[in-house]
Structure prediction request, 338 residues.
Amino acid sequence: MVDKGPILRINELKVSFQTGGKYVPAVDGVSFDLIEGEILGIVGESGSGKSVTSLAAMGLVPSPPGKVDNGNITFAGKDLTASSEKEWRKIRGNQISMIFQEPMTSLNPLFTIGNQLDEAIRLHTNLTKKEMKVRSIELLRLVGIPRADEILKEYPHQLSGGMRQRVMIAMAMACSPKVLIADEPTTALDVTIQAQILSLMKDLNKKTNTSIILITHDLGVVAEICQRVIVMYAGQIVEQGDVRKILKNPQHPYTKGLLKSVPDIRGKKDRLYSIPGTVPAPGTVKQGCRFAARCPHLFAKCLKEAPELANLQKDGHEVRCFLHTLKEGSDQLDKSAT
Prediction:
């Protein structure tokens, strides 16, 4: 079996936003590969840099106030970093598509579903009006929407949340993209519909070989459909590798905290675990590890130096933590002194 190469490569990406007259980094030195045909999960709390990373991969960082300070975005072997807006428009929606979190704000309430699907197809193809309608019905059926020809005549407000999300996926798949970025696609949906949307994405990945980046704060969702996972915290990757290995044996204290926060129906806990503290605002941690203030395994070194992302094994499991390099337990810091 021949190993497939990366369809999308992010290298040393740094994205900053202007606030209070200065630029602060929201994403700081992020690097990862998306392998052709895989589903990659990116997890972390709000403010960890997940969505900004995905916007950069689509050439959608708003400027001003944002700017890409450093790094490369390579798609199918082509460096897109210095691409013009015209070049990005050819790729965006055609070869790289995105599903946003709230379909009601992404769909135009003044136009029918058919109008909006037609527009998505018309931008990147030369199909006739009749061919576009056939393609639209085909797409709606692909995402499991019944009576597709009738739905084309309806407006977004006439559909349920789950149906609207399916329409968004159909629009994203209109030009058979090679990469699909899904930003919290199930957040606003009830549990039953969530399961259906995740199943649909898994099915699309198998049928069309579309590579998917799934952005979420829910490790349960990642366990369900992803092959690899990236854990982000305060604009950096703190752990990445094979989903099963990381879920079975997490190495970063933050990943362990996220896993402990997932409800377990087998346990009888009075309260769910919660990681103490909050994600620091961008640019506020001037030195040391960005997770230090919330970490139960704090070393003196953690407050002075920033750990690098290091390979644990040859299987691509990487972690950003001094626990794997510091052996002297006596260096454990008395937290009462901080």
User: Anything to note?
Assistant: Residues 191-208 form the longest helix (18 residues). The radius of gyration is 21 Å. The first strand starts at residue 6 and ends at 19. Residues 327-338 have pLDDT under 50 and may be disordered.
